[in-house]
Design a protein that fits this description.
Helix content is 35%, strand content 22%. The protein is built from 18 helices and 24 strands. Helix 1 packs antiparallel against helix 2 (51-60), helix 3 (105-114) crosses helix 4 (125-135) and helix 4 crosses helix 5. It starts with a strand and ends in a 17-residue tail after the last helix. Bound molecules: 6-O-phosphono-alpha-D-glucopyranose.
Amino acid sequence: MCGIVGAVAQRNIVSVLIEGLRRLEYRGYDSCGVAVLDARGPTRARSVERVADLEGQVRDGNLEGVTGIAHTRWATHGAPVTDNAHPIFSRDALALVHNGIIENYEGLREMLRGKGYEFISQTDTEVIAHLIHSLYRGDLFAAVRAAVAQLHGAYAIAVLHKDQPHTVVGARQGSPLVVGLGEGENFLASDALALAGSTERFIFLEEGDVCELSLDGVRIADRQGEAAQREVRQVAAYGGAVELGPYRHFMQKEIFEQPRAITDTIAQTDAFDASIFGEGAGQVFADIDSLLILACGTSYYSGLTAKYWLESLARIPTQVEIASEYRYRESVPNPKSLVVVISQSGETADTLAALKHAQGLGHKHTLAICNVGTSAMVRQTELSFLTHAGREIGVASTKAFTTQLVALFTLAATLAKLRGRLNDEQEADYLKQLRHLPAALNSVLALEPQIIAWSEEFSRKEHALFLGRGMHYPIALEGALKLKEISYIHAEAYPAGELKHGPLALVTEAMPVVTVAPNDALLEKLKSNIQEVRARGGQLYVFADADTKIVNGEGLHVIRMPEHYGLLSPILHVVPLQLLAYHTACARGTDVDKPRNLAKSVTVE
Ligand code: G6P
């Protein structure tokens, strides 16, 4: 999704800005741009192609400057055309980049038109540029503070003005923004990752903060306009760009990284001890009587799976809700409920807003399960568990999902132990199963050639159904999501028992029905569901545990999984579905790592 980079230095800063954009590219965008200040004012280059094209333009146009801002845009208001790409100018004096959505832009646009401002783009962003310009009286910091007081919605912005050649001003509300501190130069970005290589010292701005970067320092004002001191944090973990290695796409690489990612995630778990979730977790866990899980997309499906573990292992009532729904509905808060937010990025706007909403309703206990230790979500929760999946580049989440599942299973087992529902022997057994999981995953990954054979067939379909039961129903949902995200095949998932209540009407020879078939208590029921599909000429593609005795037959294609893996089985069963989606997308020739219209980190509502 949208990305911001800004810099004030004594050297030509264009390569730092372009490199920053390149590091944010994987998040998804549909246009990009850069602006620098020179004696005449801001100059810019913009592209509706990739950052590489922008770099070519910059080189050909000899764009150079010591102060600049840059942006990758994921279109919300206005199509991805050059006029709508950022930086947006106001009267050739001011340049601005913006992440987020301004909700009151229509009213502001009318007001600014009344003052003679001409609107060239269809963006909501242009109102911010003109608004700041209209309020500018020789002090950009003051003008931005006055302007943001009039904005409703979510934003992170970076602005420069021709009369202040060594200044970049930033502001944030509902969208992340960090300051990077250098020696005689300072930076701004929507993600610290963008500044890897330029600095390791960061200030994570707080909601409502406005900052001013100059060559020798940074000043920050809080929402009330008071000077604010913010902690400087050393973040060395950003390293270099992630390499693709022998893989064709990052998604494939990340699928195959899952055994390693899970090994790293469980490295901290010698016992199911509350302290894994942070200081004071033991007390919090003793205090709570239920869980409220909030998340979006794939992270939501990991929450849905966890509900089965939490209720069966720990016997703790668990509610799982899509964050964007929860934040806007009237719910009945329970202060004794632990709010668990699950997020790969820790920056998803809806999940962050749902967390704040829950806190506002009086939920005092909060836990983030997240892959980014410096993210807003981890900073805003009482407890946290980091998944250590490593950076995930593919938009379609894979290793982040399976490591979330490991984290959530650990949570369920920890709560079970605290509630006297897990004896020493069971604890040792679950720990052993967790440690064996990477090896078990490797044997599932070895099924890739068989899955490739199926994917040829799938690539010619336009629809697919996914079935699962019990804790494998969310896995079916995740399988369908993966397929639609990257292959653009319409896919839906149902709990298999629901088949006869609707989706059976869709079953014909043309509709592949993917079935997740673990050897669990629901197997016999699932076998009946399989027969219901076969009787109607449907084509079944079944991932069946070794001991299920489901075998190939007419209309029945089976890939044999390892032996049933008990409660952790969903973590194994999602992997062939990831591979099926991946290879089907490859066969259809889509842009697997950057599927159309989607973004890695959805920082707008
Ligand atoms: C986007 C991504 C998904 C992800 C979802 C939630 O839609 O494309 O892969 O599952 O956001 O993201 P989060 O970072 O909160 O897990």
